[in-house]
Amino acid sequence: xxxxxxxxxxxxxxADVVRGVSLTARPGEVxxxxxxxxxxxxxxxxxxxxxxxxxxxxxxxxxxxxxxxGRSAFGRTLAYxxxxxxxxxxxxVAEVVAxxxxxxxxxxxxxxxxxxxAAADVEGLRDRTVGTLxxxxxxxxxxxxxxxVEAPILLADEPVAxxxxxxxxxxxxxxxxxxxxxxxxxxxxxxxTLAARFCDRLILLKDGRALVQGPPSEVLQxxxxxxxxxxxxxxxxxxxxxxxxxxxxxxxxxxxxxTSL
Amino acid sequence: MTRLVxxxxxxxxxxxxxxxxxxxxxxxxxxxxxxxxxxRPTLEALVLAELRLPRAVLGAAVGFSLGLTGAxxxxxxxxxxxxxxxxxxxxxxxxxxxxxxxxxxxSAFALALPLGGLAGAGLATAxxxxxxxxxxxxxxxxxxGVALNSLSGALTALALNLAPSPYAALEVVFWLMGSLSDxxxxxxxxxxxxMIVGWGLVLATARAMDALTLGEDTAASLGxxxxxxxxxxxxxxxxxxxxxxxxxxxxxxVGLVVPHLMRPLVGHRPGRLLLVSGLAGAxxxxxxxxxxRLIPTRPExxxxxxxxxxxxxxxxxxxxxxxxxxx
Lengths: 261, 327
Prior knowledge:
Chain A is of the alpha/beta class.
């Protein structure tokens, strides 16, 4: 389902944290939201999820607003993976994943739950309680929970934060798999290489505004990175896929190397 | 789950029967029931209808209210330390009843006490619901409840301070300890409707309680209106707990301890916990009220004293074993 945000503005604590951002996320596509801390990435995602009211602008999902869709149907339209999501009671893993079925009726284990658990590779954890999981396992369980909604739109806020490299790649592959089945995926990312490799399009935010959006090769240009993040970058390619490394802060002289005697 | 509910319903029913039979005076329950059904106005039938039955019904209803709302508030706040007192309604209900004492309304007509309690609870509820309607967050609501409780406590202390005689003060203090003795059908008629409405509102949030396991934002993304959930839980808890305090005084620890006892039995699912905690609260309160009557002290021990005496040490033991948070 296509998500279109048109000139949205979000105010929090008296300040406009998102200012006139427009974006489009299409089915089968991973849209990456990138930008420095405080740029408004999470605020944009929350606005797309309908969690915060808009000062102006509007968001439509398949051409309809959230109000037109209705609250309970909206819960089936969109799955939201919160940043650093917590699980407040020591439920079993299978029950946590089944919470994703609440918009469809009861939180019962069904075939959708089984599919989500298989996709996120958490079937082996089925009967563990969440308190016994490692950080990476818990992150995958929460992704399975979001997948279990089987919504046509998936919003993920920094899904790879606090994950080791292996699980970062695993989660990004999961998002790609989701997109391949026709889901519109929108994800906030900090890692520029993951953004370059796994996203079809990127939107670069700074100070609540969209600086540029388009394919990764256009967005991740050195001058854009210097402007948005204040860093120089090194770029390259391996197996036909790009990588990009933040290298040095702009305008800061190269630090003296400590010399050992 | 279904088996657990059936077991708790049976236990509660059994304890209600025990509560009717138990008492310092010998009482022929079978004779009383047959007299009551046949409409024979014997002493036994009168005791059953006017004293024993209301006491058992109130014990179950008050306990159900405390257990249910304790579980709901812990689920809403995702905090295992919440109890029905945190919404501030119990303090306000106690204050209402104390004011009815203070201004001598209780000597004018017997129902002044519970009605005063209901009025206090009603005012506090109206205040909280106004906040919730304006979109106040859960933390704000709870802090408002804590402030309400403190204010009510201070005003209750003021009323005691200015009490016209030490006997009046003593009477108020005794009432505040919580008890179910000498309650009549009138008390049931005054309190039960509010409790039933409150139960309905709170039980309607079971699915939202499950969703809240993942936090407020994720629950909202699953299609639940948090404002509605807060209104239902706070409004329902206020009605049920306010009515409980109005007829029975403050009965501590049931609302805090029971959800902890039941949680492992329902796989820690906050939605399933609601009904189960209500039933277990009813059983615990009935049990404690039977104990009160079996322990031969003069004057009779107050129910609130017994639940706190059993509850507090038990809760400490429980804490050793509970992993308070999942993470």
